[in-house]
């Protein structure tokens, strides 16, 4: 699943299509995608893991789910896109994604303060919401888009390792210093993710995600499907601390 930094890269890649008219619409989406025919693409935004393409009177929302992808100007062989938009400047292809047309104003639908990549990101808001959910597992918190829009499984695994926190910690059991540190590091790591992704070196910087050995302790990492989201979690039982109410 593309995470917030990847969507920012996509937004930049789509700039040549901004203020251009859609010349052709195709795809197997059941949504009324022909509505975009001959429409001008006015704005390209992202919120978390969602791509938002604004046209006059409505917005196209693309959510890549777990296995969604995109290409520009080069269609995938033997694959029918969920949606393709052709402009004078080229064609955008979207695959295995959710396509939805939004009628409301985006500011009425999205809280930009929750987006870890946004200039409007508000860590104090996220902290206040976390403190209202003391039993929430930290591995689930980092995947909850209302708290950390744009944070995904890679960011979750890497940030927990960087902050030496066991994924099964509950929010209420974390010392205040640790809670503050992890909120701060989610955004910091997201921008490192962005930089590394732009340089095609992201995987070289992974410490635990898809790894088998802890780089600090040189012992096998644990791999499990944890929390309510049951996403793959890589962690070290030796150096990632599990607090409890007695600590």
Automatic annotation (TrEMBL):
Domain of life: Bacteria
Residues in Formamidopyrimidine-DNA glycosylase catalytic domain copies: 2-90
Catalytic activity: Hydrolysis of DNA containing ring-opened 7-methylguanine residues, releasing 2,6-diamino-4-hydroxy-5-(N-methyl)formamidopyrimidine
Domain FPG-type: 207-241
PROSITE patterns per UniProt: FPG_CAT, ZF_FPG_2
Keywords: DNA damage, DNA repair, DNA-binding, Endonuclease, Glycosidase, Hydrolase, Lyase, Metal-binding, Multifunctional enzyme, Nuclease, Zinc, Zinc-finger
Annotated InterPro entries: FPG_cat, FPG_N, H2TH_FPG, Ribosomal_uS13-like_H2TH, Znf_DNA_glyclase/AP_lyase
GO biological process, one term: base-excision repair
Family note: Belongs to the FPG family.
Matching PANTHER family: FORMAMIDOPYRIMIDINE-DNA GLYCOSYLASE
Name of the protein described by the UniProt record: Endonuclease
Species, as recorded: Arachidicoccus ginsenosidivorans
């Amino acid at each position: 699943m593309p995470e917030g930094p990847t969507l920012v890269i996509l937004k930049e890649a789509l700039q040549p299509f901004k203020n251009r008219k859609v010349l052709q619409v195709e795809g197997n989406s059941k949504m009324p995608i022909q509505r975009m025919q001959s429409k001008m693409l006015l704005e390209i935004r992202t919120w978390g893991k969602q791509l938002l393409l604004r046209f006059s009177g409505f917005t196209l929302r693309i959510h890549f789910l777990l296995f969604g992808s995109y290409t520009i100007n080069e269609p995938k062989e033997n694959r029918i896109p969920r949606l393709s938009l052709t402009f004078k400047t080229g064609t955008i292809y979207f695959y295995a994604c959710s396509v939805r047309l939004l009628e409301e104003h985006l500011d009425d639908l999205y809280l930009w303060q929750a987006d870890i990549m946004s200039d409007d990101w508000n860590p104090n808001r996220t902290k206040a919401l976390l403190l209202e959910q003391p039993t929430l597992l930290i591995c689930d918190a980092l995947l909850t888009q209302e708290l950390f829009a744009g944070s995904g499984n890679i960011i979750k695994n890497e940030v927990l390792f960087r902050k030496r926190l066991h994924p099964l910690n509950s929010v209420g059991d974390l010392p205040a210093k640790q809670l503050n540190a992890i909120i701060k590091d989610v955004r910091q790591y997201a921008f490192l993710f962005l930089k590394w992704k732009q340089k095609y070196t992201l995987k070289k910087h992974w410490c635990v995600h898809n790894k088998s050995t802890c780089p600090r302790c040189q012992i096998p990492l644990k791999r499990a499907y944890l929390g309510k989201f049951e996403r793959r979690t890589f962690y070290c039982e030796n150096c990632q601390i599990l607090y409890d109410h007695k600590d």
